[in-house]
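To: structure subgroup
Subject: Chain for Friday's discussion

All,

I'm putting the inputs and outputs inline so they're searchable in the archive.
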Amino acid sequence: MKPLPLPVRVAAGLAATALEQARRLPQQLAGLPVTVVSEALQLSMRVQQHVTELAIKGDDILSGLRPVEDEPEWATFDEDAEEPEATDDDGDPWAEEERALAREVPEALPNYDDLSIAQLRARLRNLSIDDLEELLTYERAHAARPEFVGMLNRRITTVRSQ
């Protein structure tokens, strides 16, 4: 018996493959959302890795252009810290709490000390330049957290430029 022509055999194989795929389709559709989400997360992680690698390369290149500070102004060491003077309150367990309550809190955000950096960022757009400067002064006088000071400085610069 003579074999069938190649196009006929290819068409029959294609039809059989289509039929097999059609039978597996319900199972594949059930897992499709999970597959799509998984692939999207993998892509997102790959992009983040590439961005991080680029940032590290950029840091390496730019570090040669900037002089290294001997001792950053924000760095403090135990030997640099002055010993606090003894007060009558040293034996009183409530003295620290009274001092904390006596601190002035910013009027713009009375719960400022309890806010995380993300919570503060969410509230900054609603504040005036005076409120932002009040928060910056308060932050510098109390906790002086570099990330808070930096964010407040950037927001003040942005508001002034608008």
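Points worth raising on Friday:
The chain is about 65% helix and 0% strand.
The chain has two domains: 1-65, 104-161.

D.
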